[in-house]
Structure formats: C-alpha cells, structure tokens
C-alpha cells in the first residue's frame, strides 16, 4: 500500500539516507551525480530546521565529505559505525571480528569475476555485483557462509546489488537514537527516509520513537509512509524551503 507522508515541518528532525534516497543509484559507487541543487536543498533544510538534519549512510564519512563538501553537516557513516554530531565531534565505535581475514578470503571471487566491484571502507567491506546481477544468488550464499564461519562478531548486510560485511553492534537505528539524545535533535519528532534493507533498522527505531518513517520505492518495509523515487523525496523536502520562501516574500511585501 502507498501512503503519502504528511507535509514536512521545520520543527521535526530529519535523518536522510543518501544512495537511492537523495541521489539516484548509478552503475558504480563512484558514478553518482551530486548536483548543486541538492547541496542547496540540504543547506536550506539544515538552516530552516535549526541544524536538525543528518545524513545516515552506508558510505564512510570521508567519502561523503569528499563528494558533498559539507564538513559541518551531522552524519553517520558505515551503517552507524562512525558519526559526526552537530558540534563537529567524530566518534568511531570499537569493533570486533576479523574483517581483514574476510577481505583475504574474498580475493578468489574478485580474481575470478572481474565485473565485481570491491569497496574497502576500513570497518566494513562491500562487494558490488550491479555489473553482474546474475551472480547475486551465488555471491550471497558464498559470502553468508564465509561470514558464518568467521564467528558471531561479523554480519552480512544485504543491499541493492551489494553484499556488505560489517561488525555487529551498531546500525542506522542506533545512529539515529544517538543523534536524538543530543541537541539540536533532542525533543523533536524524528523523520527517517531510506530506500534499502539497511534502512529498515532506522525505520524500526523511528517508529519506536513515535516518528515518521518513509520508504523510497517498492518492497516490503517497516516504514509507515512511502515516496516513489528520489525526485519525490526532494519535492517532499522542498515543501519546507518553498514555504519559507513564500513566507519571506510575504514579509517583504508587508515591510515595503
Ligand atoms: O546507506 P546509503 O547511503 O544508501 O549507502 C548504501 C550503499 O550505497 C552505495 O552503493 C549503492 O549505490 C551505488 C551508487 O549508486 C550503486 O552502484 C550500488 O549498486 C548500490 O549498492 C555505496 O557504494 C555503499 O558503500 C553504501 O553502503
């Protein structure tokens, strides 16, 4: 069922997934297009919501900073394993599990299937098969088995044409909970928008907090609301900025 979310309010706290939510998916992680209009929208939202806007991504903070160039923006990276709060303090959670051994064991797969893209994010690893979708089932079984044999400290996080291996203990839900305990998020109604399986942790957390969870696109979800695609997300968020523009215009008219 498709339920449209209510109009957004500047008094809420906004947690935004990146790939597939703010930015259209691309053939490879490096191919995403970040346009100026998106950056302006994020900046406007951040200002109009008194700073209560954070990105919640599977990408690393360094990657997001490199692509977006917004070093002041609160963000959680690596599915919740690192985060930067509104004061600019960066925290990286301690991890267990031998991710380097998994990296070594993935080498034969990478040598055999040249279409696979391997993303080493330090704390987590991602194996992308968007260029070879038919390998998906086989790769998922292979990696699941590998991670199971490695013990209980690591887990598989499936995503869109990607299999990620990450430590247990943190996720997008825990990142949102951490942000909500601090200013300027504290006391606001949390909104989380995401499109992928890793975002389900965020939806569950926001639902528990009485917030607004929004799934982008199709598929089973714990989210309460749905938006069809990236353009619909941006249009929905723009209601805040355009309402403010018309308010400014009205005040200008009143003053002059
Ligand atoms: O949590 P997100 O911000 O949505 O990040 C999830 C993963 O996104 C990236 O991979 C996905 O997007 C790529 C570019 O569009 C696409 O080629 C790939 O198939 C998708 O899975 C990123 O590369 C991962 O590190 C993120 O975890």
Automatic annotation (TrEMBL):
Its EC number is 3.1.3.12. It is an enzyme of class 3 (hydrolase). GO terms for biological process: trehalose biosynthetic process. Coiled coil: none annotated. Gene3D superfamilies: HAD superfamily/HAD-like, Trehalose-6-phosphate phosphatase related protein, domain 2. It catalyses: alpha,alpha-trehalose 6-phosphate + H2O = alpha,alpha-trehalose + phosphate. It holds the Pfam family Trehalose_PPase. Pathway: Glycan biosynthesis; trehalose biosynthesis. Keywords: Hydrolase, Magnesium, Metal-binding. Belongs to the trehalose phosphatase family. PANTHER family: TREHALOSE 6-PHOSPHATE PHOSPHATASE (PTHR43768:SF3). Removes the phosphate from trehalose 6-phosphate to produce free trehalose. This is Trehalose 6-phosphate phosphatase. It comes from Georgfuchsia toluolica.
């Amino acid at each position: 069922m498709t339920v449209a979310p209510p109009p957004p309010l500047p008094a809420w706290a906004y947690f935004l997934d990146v790939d597939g939510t703010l930015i259209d998916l691309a053939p490879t992680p490096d191919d995403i297009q970040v346009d100026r209009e998106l950056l302006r929208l994020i900046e406007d939202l951040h200002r109009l919501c008194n700073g209560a806007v954070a990105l919640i991504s599977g990408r690393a903070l360094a990657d997001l900073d490199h692509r977006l160039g917004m070093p002041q923006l609160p963000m959680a990276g690596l599915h919740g394993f690192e985060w930067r709060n509104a004061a600019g303090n960066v925290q990286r959670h301690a991890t267990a599990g031998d991710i380097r051994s998994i990296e070594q064991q993935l080498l034969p797969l990478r040598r055999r299937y040249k279409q696979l893209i391997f993303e080493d994010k330090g704390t987590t690893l991602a194996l992308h098969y968007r260029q070879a979708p038919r390998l998906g089932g086989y790769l998922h079984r292979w990696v699941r088995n590998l991670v199971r044999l490695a013990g209980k400290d690591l887990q598989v996080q499936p995503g869109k044409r990607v299999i990620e291996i990450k430590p247990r203990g943190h996720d997008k839900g825990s990142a949102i909970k951490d942000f909500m305990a601090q200013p300027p998020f504290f006391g606001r109604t949390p909104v989380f928008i995401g499109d992928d399986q890793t975002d389900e942790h965020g939806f569950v957390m926001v639902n528990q907090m009485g917030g607004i969870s929004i799934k982008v696109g199709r598929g089973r979800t714990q989210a309460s609301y749905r938006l069809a695609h990236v353009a619909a997300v941006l249009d929905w968020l723009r209601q805040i900025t355009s309402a403010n523009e018309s308010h400014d215009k009205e005040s200008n008219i009143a003053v002059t």
